[in-house]
Structures are given as structure tokens and as C-alpha cells.
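Q: Give me a backbone?
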Amino acid sequence: MGPKKFFSVLTGVFFILGVCGCGFERPFQSEATYQAPKTGYEITIRATGVVPAGAEIVDVPSGSVEIRPFANPKSKKLITLIVKNEKHVIYHYDEGNPSAVEWDFRTRNALFADLLIRAGYDQPDADEVEESLEVMYGVMYGPKSTRLKGQTKFLQVIEVKKITP
């Protein structure tokens, strides 16, 4: 085989590897905990999913969230959220009965703040509420959108575990 033919074959092999090499689904399992120092809560997000071949994030975020007080814990309730997608959330306080809420990017900040108020938090900080939703969905969309230390402005990153199989 001459040098030109060898180069052509090698180029073809690299092209095929380049196209096919991005074709693997990537399962993930993540857990991240952040603190909202002004409002006084800690938020832990757990998510599992599969990032489709050739994508950076999952198509539909899902996971579970626990919001618990770290300041004056006796006067506040634990909030648990089960997120089915960007719009459908099931929540309950402590061990109470679950309820559902539908939210979108226009209403979710106000609804999240209302959940905090009903759990006993006085006037949740608007910046912490917004960033809490950002980190929540970030973890659920997958490892590439999970915020690490130095990537948050209003929340403190306590721990991020990427338990990727």
C-alpha cells in the first residue's frame, strides 16, 4: 500500500471513530448539597439519568430534593420535592401528605419561595431562591450542568458527589 492510500485509509478510520466515538449513552447518578446562608436552609439534590449519545445533558430532568433548616431547625419543616420534569413537582412537608404543583420558568421562583414560607422560613432571599432552582435543575440535567465550588454566587457548595457508573 502506497503512502497516499495509507493516508486515505487512516483519515477514513479517524473520521469513523470521531463520528461513532460520540455515540455512547452516559448514565449518571449525582448528589449535591448547597446552603442558603441568608434564608437558613440546606438543599440536597439527588438525580439519576442517562445522557443521550452526542448530548451534553439529559432531555428531561428528574430527581428528588430535600430542603431542611440549618438555622433554628425546630421552627421549620423539612420539604421534600419529587421532580418528574421541568414543570411537574410533587412536594410534602415533614411526613405529610404529598401535593402537586405545576410550574414553569415564569412561576417557579414565586412557588418555590411560597413552599419555603409555608415551611416556616421568613421572607426567603430572592437570589437564593433563584440560584436554588438553578442548582436543583443543574444536578438533574447531569454532571456537566452541576455547579461546583466557585460556580455559585449566593449559595455555598457543601458537597457534590458524582457517582457515575
